[in-house]
Design brief:
Length: about 200
């Protein structure tokens, strides 16, 4: 089992973080849309926001870990047949998603701590309020949070569609690399691709 990324394929840590973040983002998005529809006397009226906040704090920590790991173990090199536009678009999309996710999580933190209370994360630990009491903080941060959530979801869907396009139309291993296909599959693809070019 290979944990680190290589020049040609992703390691298990990058793959696990990628899919855990994706699962958390879509789960949080669905939970957020659902919990704002709940009435005051609904069973989950208080429990859903607490769950949302706790997962958000863990997701923030995972995103920091993901960013650190990206520098410790850089992602594989782009496939050789990628055009300059494809390479630039992929880099732009990835870093835009990073920025949007951190902004989304920060706005969620500002909503949760607007009243000066810390966030209790599943009863394991608390995240203190560092900025609170600003006029209209919760409302402004809430509006920003909603717009950013939609931006993250839309951009991630486009990211997924691009991966499917690489898989089904281009016939390359872009998607397979993030699904756990490793060096021997990559080597076979490179041999096939070079043979087709010749």
């Amino acid at each position: 089992m290979r944990w680190r990324n290589s020049a040609d394929s992703f390691g298990h840590i990058s793959i696990a973080i990628h899919w855990l973040v994706a699962l958390a983002v879509y789960g949080m998005f669905a939970l957020g849309l659902w919990m704002v529809t709940l009435g005051y006397y609904a069973t989950w009226y208080h429990r859903a926001p607490e769950l949302h906040k706790s997962i958000g704090c863990l997701l923030f920590a995972m995103m920091i870990l993901r960013l650190i790991w990206r520098f410790i173990s850089p992602p594989p090199k782009p496939l050789s047949h990628y055009s300059p536009l494809t390479r630039a678009g992929a880099v732009l999309a990835h870093w835009t998603l990073y920025i949007l996710l951190f902004a989304l999580l920060t706005s969620g933190y500002l909503i949760s701590t607007a009243d000066g209370q810390p966030i209790n994360v599943f009863g394991w630990f608390s995240v203190p309020a560092t900025l609170s009491g600003l006029a209209g903080q919760a409302d402004l941060a809430g509006d920003i949070h909603l717009y950013l959530a939609w931006c993250v979801v839309i951009l991630s869907v486009l990211h997924g569609l691009a991966a499917l396009k690489h898989h089904f139309i281009d016939g390359d291993i872009t998607l397979k690399r993030m699904l756990g296909y490793h060096l021997h599959q990559t080597a076979q693809y490179k041999e096939k691709h070079h043979a087709e070019k010749d």
